[in-house]
Amino acid sequence: MGRISTRNGETAIHDIIPLEIHGIDEDRLNASAISIMQTLNEAGFEAYLVGGGVRDFLLGNIPKDFDVATNATPDEICGLFRRARIVGRRFQIVHVRMGPEVFEVTTFRAPHQDDSNDTEARQDANGMLTRDNVYGGTVADDAQRRDFTLNALYYNHKDRCVYDFCGAWQDAKAKQLRIIGEPSTRYREDPVRMLRAIRFLGKLPLTIDPATEAPIFELGHLLREVSSSRLFDEVLKLLQAGHGADTFELSWEYGLHQVLFPEASQVLEANTESTYWDLIEQALENTDARLKSGRTVNPAFLYACLLWPAAHQRFQQLLAEGLSAQDAMRKAGAITIDANSATVAIPRRFAQVTREIWELQLRLPNTQTRRALAMLRQPRFRAAYDFLLLREHSKEIPAGLGQWWTEFQAAHPDVKPEREQPDDRPRRRRRPFRK
Ligand code: ATP
Ligand code: MG
């Protein structure tokens, strides 16, 4: 199956896996993704399906999304699709919208040259790439810029073959996660690859190649250099994608959770028997179950659970210092979220809800009927009640109050939470009508 492709006199040996062997049935692939490839092919460009769409399919999972790689530049891609726009700075991609779905179309990356300019390629003192936009490579070059071999299998709609440039097909058969290139260098270029590694281990039936695994224990601290807003998104992908409970355990084993949530992890580490462990594990199991049954999950609730060990400890300290319970919880919430924003920054609209979930814990014990009815109308009641159940389940507080609220809700089925207050984001002003 070996072939040779050439570019600038360099050679890259690759394997071409025919349909009879890979068995990817186009009828079971996403029709819009195929039509994107067709459009690109018809305009004279190469186009391949790559990444999770191919990987998950070969491993017997249902792909979550489909990514296309092409030799068309972002501007050329935008010229071919009506609903396309360039997103990202560190790594530019094009979002192509087809119906309700969004597809990521990326231009082949080329290896970085010493004369690459600043907007194309940029690296900081740790070796981290802060720009990775050198275009003009071949599909073989593009494969070398991807993270794991399984994510670098290219399905070509034109000949229905899968192209492999890095031993990915063998890894797929062996169900092995292996990073492309020298592992430490690749993690230094982009430390998020360590989080991606454990995400794939949590969701897929894979083992990790020892050379891919070893540096993670040493280099986890590099995540501190990654932008805190990117880490917010990555944590959601890690823990709110259906395999949160397993992935949490892995992130702890590899020491990555400790980097992302230093204070909360310190409390967990100092109290190996603590109820906080149960609270987080149960919350993640519930989240996985909710997602499996097609229900939505709320990032603010996840963060309320992840940061609770730190917030609760601080609350108790502030109480001991003489603050009222309300003041102590308000202050503990604010400081805890602020302290963690050095690594993972929770956007304000979520942080506000996280704090409300904590603060309502102090009001739930007030079961006087008038107050309790007002509580049912609280937009955050449901989240606060779920959080209370978790605290009881983990035995942080004695059981009983949760049951009381369950019965109270059943007795007042007509009392619903009020609609959320409009947030404080500035409204777009309507342009005055002009004749
Ligand atoms: P998922 O099923 O969760 O979408 P995925 O592998 O498709 O998994 P994406 O974030 O959609 O993940 O990325 C698409 C592809 O882009 C990856 O499969 C990989 O080839 C490449 N990629 C993504 N992030 C990185 C990275 N940080 N470094 C190198 N390559 C990356
Ligand atoms: Mg994907």
Short description:
It contains 21 helices and 13 strands. It has 435 residues and is an alpha+beta fold.
Can you describe what's shown?
The chain folds into two domains: 2-181, Beta Polymerase, domain 2 (2-Layer Sandwich), CATH 3.30.460; 228-411, cca-adding enzyme, domain 2 (Orthogonal Bundle). Helix content is 48%, strand content 13%. It has helices spanning 19-22, 31-42, 52-58, 74-80, 139-145, 168-174, 183-189, 192-203, 210-219, 228-239, 244-253, 256-260, 262-270, 275-292, 299-306, 308-320, 325-340, 348-360, 369-377, 381-393, 401-411, and strands at 2-7, 10-17, 47-50, 67-70, 84-87, 93-98, 101-107, 121-123, 129-132, 153-156, 161-164, 176-177, 207-208. A hairpin with a 5-residue loop joins strand 5 (84-87) and strand 6. The chain is elongated. The structure holds adenosine-5'-triphosphate and magnesium ion (MG). Adenosine-5'-triphosphate binds at residues 50-52, 56, 64-65, 67, 146-147, 151-152, 190, 192-193.
